[in-house]
């Protein structure tokens, strides 16, 4: 899930539609609402955020520090001006990258992945055992061969691998895949998605790499 902050509701709804075409869920906030949310949101919810996209906001230079106090996800600022000083101020405030309009959401996703690589292996995508995931809309690979998955199953696999070593409960996975405030879908849908994903992985790998424990949640264990 990507959190978008902008004082214009038309902008946040526009990003939501654009990212949805790439299979990415977004949650939009006004600056005032975001300030309150980031200070009080439960840890499980903010850990479901994959990146923050900060648009036009009053005092937006304050947001990177507030985010860093709660979460290490990439922070990207959208700069609508051509001012070098403005861009430098945003970097000084702590954003990881600055993009200028117009840009395609795939460029934003590529920049998010580049930031992750900067603090990771430096390799394209994330390789764990025989599986490589990309988090930019591409299908994962198993042993170097493309492994086609429906959008939700692909996103769950990406999220499990991004959080390998941690056990994730159903609510965390739901928030990451559907968004924190989606009330139109029941959390139980996660169980259905994971059941289908496990069956496909078992057929391809010869074993089930997703470990589940009642009341504790899911984690991925790849040889």
From TrEMBL:
Residues of the Response regulatory domain: 1-116
Keywords, comma-separated and alphabetical: DNA-binding, Transcription, Transcription regulation
Annotated DNA-binding residue span(s): 123-222
Alphabetized InterPro entries for the sequence: CheY-like_superfamily (IPR011006), OmpR/PhoB-type_DNA-bd (IPR001867), Sig_transdc_resp-reg_C-effctor (IPR016032), Sig_transdc_resp-reg_receiver (IPR001789), WalR-like (IPR039420), WH-like_DNA-bd_sf (IPR036388)
MF GO annotations: phosphorelay response regulator activity; transcription cis-regulatory region binding
GO cellular component, one term: cytosol
GO biological process annotation, one example: regulation of DNA-templated transcription
Species name: Phyllobacterium endophyticum
The protein's name: Two-component system response regulator
Chain ranges of the OmpR/PhoB-type domain: 123-222
Pfam family for this entry, one: Trans_reg_C
SMART domains for this protein: Trans_reg_C
Source organism superkingdom: Bacteria
